[in-house]
Design brief:
Length: 378
């Protein structure tokens, strides 16, 4: 008989409901049962501290770096392992290393590193290419000299190998007709970002397969009374999934609350994290520019936001403290919703039989992390 592990907690949130005095039973990498704590038998039991919660592990779709490592600088399996370790401290059990606009050579290196890492690191789900097909009018810190229009060979670079997610953030108005549909047929997930697309251009892209919106509100055409742009399209569509950076810097809390109340779609938390998260340095270089991490912000020397100094536990905590969300709702934004967007909602984002045993234990008053498990391993 295979050895079973039971993680017992005062509160288990399974992604939908709360269970009190419950335990999650794990066999190999998967959850086999969620049961009452008193009913656990024939298993090694790990009892969490009094008052602790156990919930699905956090999933982050936009991670530029961590542990003083920037993925653009080091698109290697070793760098990915460092980034994973840095974010796991904050409850993130799986993520997409994110490559911002760079050369074709760097894009190929990133894709190869991800494919290699996925054979040994259970926390890697794939890769996020944020660029290079972006609007010159909404660059943020992306280098304008590296922004370009797609060519036929880019389909081969971006297409995911079996079992790997490839998320591509692009500006629909900057790519030729048929390109988004071709990416969709190749198995990519498509998100709008760094874009001046109109409402109609956004809707056309959605008909071609675009379902995501990268850091909604930031680096995109603003919501207007006569031109709703991408924001209106995202908030009105039940099929749209949009990322929110809840750090108190990127988007005002009032706008975030309005978006969460108005949407019929699928909001989700992202960090847009940079190397200082889980690291020791308060500055780093980004493609030749000096970036300073000060007071919870990552900015260039002239004050332009450059990603975020945000971890997922803090994002969840901010949702409760700043936006007034119930803790359960905040947790789903960090787990169930991103799993749904990636098409992995049948194996990640919930604590239920058959799901991978990715879990986070934390103190509910401040979302301080006690322990994490990835595929059943702590």
């Amino acid at each position: 008989m295979k050895e079973r592990l039971a993680i017992a907690a005062d509160i288990v949130f399974d992604g939908d409901s709360i269970h009190r005095d419950a335990a999650v039973l794990i066999e190999d990498e998967a959850i086999v049962a969620l049961t009452r704590r008193d009913d656990v038998a024939a298993a090694t039991i790990v009892d969490l501290p009094a008052g602790a919660w156990l919930a699905p592990g956090f999933i982050d779709l936009q991670v530029n770096g961590g542990g003083d490592v920037l993925f653009n600088d080091e698109p290697t399996p070793d760098a990915i392992a460092t980034i994973l370790r840095a974010h796991r401290r904050f409850g993130t059990t799986s993520l997409l290393p994110t490559l911002i606009t760079d050369t074709d050579e760097k894009m190929r290196a990133a894709a190869h590193a991800i494919a290699d890492s996925m054979t040994r690191e259970r926390g890697v789900l794939g890769v996020h290419f944020e660029g290079p097909f972006l609007s010159p009018r909404k660059l943020g810190v992306h280098r304008g000299d590296l922004v370009r229009r797609p060519e036929p060979h880019h389909l081969a670079i971006l297409a995911p190998p079996p079992g790997c997610v490839s998320l591509v953030t692009l500006a629909p108005e900057e790519v030729p007709d048929g390109f988004i549909a071709a990416l969709t047929r190749a198995g990519c997930k498509i998100a709008l970002g760094h874009s001046m697309a109109s409402y109609e251009e956004t809707r056309t892209a959605m008909r071609d397969g675009l379902t995501g919106f990268t850091h909604l509100f930031n680096a995109m055409r603003p919501l207007g009374s006569r031109e709703g742009g991408p924001i209106a399209a995202a908030l009105e569509s039940p099929d749209a999934c949009y990322g929110l950076i809840v750090d108190g810097e990127h988007v005002h809390s009032t706008m975030l609350r309005l978006a969460l109340r108005a949407s019929v779609g699928h909001p989700m938390l992202v960090t847009d994290a940079m190397p200082p998260v889980g690291g020791h340095s308060d500055e780093f270089a980004l493609q030749g520019r000096r970036i300073l991490a000060r007071d919870g912000r990552c900015v260039t020397e002239d004050g332009v936001l450059a990603g975020a100094a945000l971890d997922m536990a803090s994002a969840v905590r901010n949702c409760v403290a700043r936006l007034g969300l119930p803790l359960e709702r905040a947790l789903t934004l960090a787990s169930r919703e991103p799993a749904h967007f990636l098409g992995l909602g049948d194996r990640l984002g919930r604590l239920a039989p058959g799901y991978r045993a990715d879990m986070v234990a934390f103190a509910p008053h401040d979302v301080s992390i006690i322990a994490t498990w990835v595929a059943g391993a702590s």
